[in-house]
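Hey, weird one. I pasted the Lytic murein transglycosylase B sequence into the form twice and got a warning about non-standard characters only the second time. First submission, copied straight from the form history:
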Amino acid sequence: MAGIFWAASGQTALAADYQGPNVDEFVAEMTRDYGFASEQLLDLFAQAERKQAILDAISRPAERVKPWKEYRPIFITDSRIAQGVDFWRQNEEALARAEQVYGVPAEVIVAIIGVETFYGRNTGNYRVIDALSTLGFDYPPRQPFFRQQLKEFLLLAREEQVDPLTLKGSYAGAMGLPQFMPSSFRAYAVDFDDDGRIDIWSNPVDAIGSAASYFKQHGWASGEPVVARAEVDGERVAEGLSPGLDPVKSVAELRELGWTAASPVADDTAVTAFRLEGVEGDEYWLGLPNFYVITRYNRSVMYAMAVHQLSEALAAARGQQP
């Protein structure tokens, strides 16, 4: 039945943080368009809590953007590599199957989970309902986005038949080992162990399959490289730098501006051309189509490079083991 949501907890908050016109309007929409029971939603929001810490975190002025030489050591560490190899060993069958089904290398999946949550150690301690209610009703700059995520979260809870008061995540509502937002969960998460439910919070098999599914559906090309180092020369090098993450120039066009790929890349390949401030000076790189896929997970060149280089380090460490 459309009105069934989750098993009632039987607990109602003494003071309701979320009530009034905005909540009533949202509840009316969910009732009208998605068949929820209004009294059940009102009870849920009576138990949701406005978290000032969440508003403080999302409103905090951005810290100085670290250069690559400072950003890289945060993620490429002996500990993260060693524990990643352990995670790989513990989930070898699932990772091998995900690579077979989706074409995404095991080391890339492990690296994503390693960068996002240190293999499940840091998945967030906020109730997702609190995070998304706080941001959806009390953070005007991104209210439409977070209210949409709140809608997706309620649908997710109904589809998975879980109590939305029990699920936890980051202050922004990202969930589980791979830190999926609710919309990503509903679009890409998979029941990879076929137990009848999708659990990316405590089941690494589902988390592995879901991360691989996400990459595959965003265009990951099996067996293809991620980046190519570039050599640069001439006065027009800066003209070749991509203004954003989208690949807007081809390798042939960049060659005219003084960029030369250090490894073979087809001339007609559209790439993201970028420069990083490395320990030994500027580094120039060409982000290939698979690099662009990683940026779909997090829209940052340095994030994508951290994932890629951690994946290389994991593969090397794994290969060194007897």
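That's the output from the first submission. The warning seems to come from a hidden character in my clipboard, not from the data itself. DSSP finds 14 helices and seven strands in the chain.
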